[in-house]
């Protein structure tokens, strides 16, 4: 077996296996949120907030529990479909967009390679690299069309290849999360026929849910959990105050 | 003035100014949607759909126009705040996240430069580049800490530096768009006291708005406008059908 090719890095000799060892043993602590977690957060966030605010607003307008439930659950159904189906179609569109950009880039590599090669240089020059430093990269890519294409998609266009299964999974996750989130503030109205009383319970459980959920969200997204909890609860409070005020105003006209 | 340094690219001699001329004269036709347009689309999309569905659902439950308006406008207020304020805080969080990752990366460049340098190699090796081809890039970056940092942020972490003004602008755009979108299906209920009649008008104007808006959305996002128009209208139709059905079910129990 041939000895490993080593290269000079700032006067120190290193080899690929040494580099790899450095990478494996050093675990950088960068946070990456799972896509499912993100979708759950998205769905539950909205589900906890808007149905809660709507129910609180209608309670303020002295509507009976049955009507509040009607409006609330109708909104949850509509919201879940809007978010879920809307998200699904948006993801599909993104996938189509990616394929079109890929095809275009592929054509340009074949028809105007000098321009594409110049673009590689332009991208790398932004990092202070001189032509004699990046030209080996340009040449290597020119001789490897697949890698060249990947490089342009990522570094010129900033596009990642979307996973086709993700669109459906994402839509279902968001829609289901929205329903679960929406049921939290609405269930009190199922069990407590007097709307004003149900509203107090709804406020209590929803506030608790918003604080808890905001805290969890903060942990998953790498932001300060306490701050996230307070912010999430605050949005819910403000949204319901606005809904309450709006309902009072309409009722008085 | 010294003559421009030229370099060999696959046997052809080229210079930076030639490359630049190639780039300027060749206009690649890649689509990029403005952030404001994206926010308007986001806000109006939801604003047209959920308030419309809620109003249609409550009409199906034989609620009077006044109550439908109460519920609808309360929902618009709550939804606008949820989307707007939620979006603002999310953008702020992203900005904080970026700053924390930037700081961490900066530290790592100072404390463990060999590992960071190995990472540059790992990133470039994914594009089929050999060590002797990418080592000039690694060395150049090692000698230019600012460029090195930018390179890692973009190519390792895929993070773009967020614009601080964008968070507020984005939130206001989304919230305002949601309100405008929501008013379209609700205004008929202001002028037509009999809910069932108002609903027919609401369906008519909202369907037209969904088709038109979906078409415009398709043009801006680079997707087929007709397909986008039909999809947008379909989501609205499905959401309102679900809300209508849900309202009927609740009313009958």
Automatic annotation (TrEMBL), chains A, B:
The keyword DNA-binding does not apply. Its main location: membrane. It is a multi-pass membrane protein. One of its GO terms (molecular function) is manganese ion transmembrane transporter activity. InterPro entries: Ccc1_fam. Belongs to the CCC1 family. This is Vacuolar iron transporter. It comes from Musa acuminata subsp. malaccensis.
